[in-house]
Amino acid sequence: MASRAATKQSPLFVCIIGTRPEVIKMAPIIRRLREVRWADVRVVAIGQHLELLDQAIADFELQIDHRIAVERQRNSIIEIAAKIMERFDVLADRLSPTCVIAQGDTTTVMASAMVAFHRRLEFIHVEAGLRTGVLRAPFPEEFNRRVVALAATLHCAPTAQAAANLRAEGVREQDCIVTGNTVIDALLYMAGRTLPLPADFPDVPKPILLTAHRRENAGAPLERMLGALRAVVERYPDVGLYFPVHPNPDTQRLAERVMSGHERIRLVPAQNYPTLVAALKASWLVVTDSGGLQEEAPALGKPVLVLRDVTERPEAVDCGAARLVGTLPDRLHHSIAELHDNSQAYQAMAQPRFPYGDGHAADRIVAAIAERIHIRDPSSTISGQVLGAGPVDPTTVSSDENSID
């Protein structure tokens, strides 16, 4: 999907991706920029296993333009950040972009923001303003996002609360816009396609979708949580578990040791986005420490139990779609049992809600960028309410069928 009618005089936008979640949330912006007539867009992939990003971005009918491979010789975030800054600086010198656009709070985003700052480039931060208020939780993401906020020239906050966090830190009103979250754009784009249910999805009335990858939950906390989830499956014959396991070898060994050998527990490799959306749609409940699923599941009416003590995404908790359960096994087991045994409690959480936007976040972001760099683009004029109301009839994306039609 090439930029349409971009010329040599068109402003050049470098869009950074380094993880599959970043691909999902950046893809709607990249697609929108490539639709307009005034933008030259380059997708820059930065990371260790860039081949993993190829399929993720192909799912959105896009492609990578430049690759920066970053090998890890030591298990050091400092090493990775230094290599990213050095190598992205070389590419930025060659491309001379007008703007750098990146999403979220990874070390890749933080390092690219520092390069943009030192080069005096516009840096557009997507999903800006998320805060737990605890500098080391999550680690290092909370630190990263605060550093990025210092370098960003335009802050695209997904919610009003995120924008308020930024203003409390001194960000000027004119440098911050509430856009909604692009993950809802991506979810609705994918939900509009026919997606078959994974063949190994548990064939039970109440399947649970589990994802767990946070660094702070690794080791003993994860072992406790997995033990509690196995106990739930053993207690209830109508419950099964679908667990796409993070590729980290320690996590895989732990999952095999605690969870293998039960016919209603399915351990599978990390899944591509279309498959994960199909599994999400078919699930009865989501148990996760993932930020993305905290945002996506409410839009499909799926209750979420969050395996964290604090979250930078309080809107899902505030509207009743999610509940913080931490990592204590008894609390997790009790929470699932309550939803299983009390249909009223389950239905109270299972109403489709849209605290993170209406599916037009990318339109708002591109319109704000056009205004910032003084481009008059009549096609980029999405406005109005962005939060709290569903953009589509929820029954079209949340049913008990095995595919999303």
TrEMBL record:
One Pfam family of this chain: Epimerase_2
UniProt KW keywords: Isomerase
Polar residues: compositionally biased ranges: 395-405
Annotated region described as Disordered, given as residue ranges: 382-405
Coiled-coil blocks: none
Domain of life: Bacteria
Family listed: Belongs to the UDP-N-acetylglucosamine 2-epimerase family.
Protein name per Swiss-Prot or TrEMBL: UDP-N-acetylglucosamine 2-epimerase (non-hydrolyzing)
The organism's taxonomic lineage, starting at the top: Bacteria, Pseudomonadati, Pseudomonadota, Alphaproteobacteria, Hyphomicrobiales
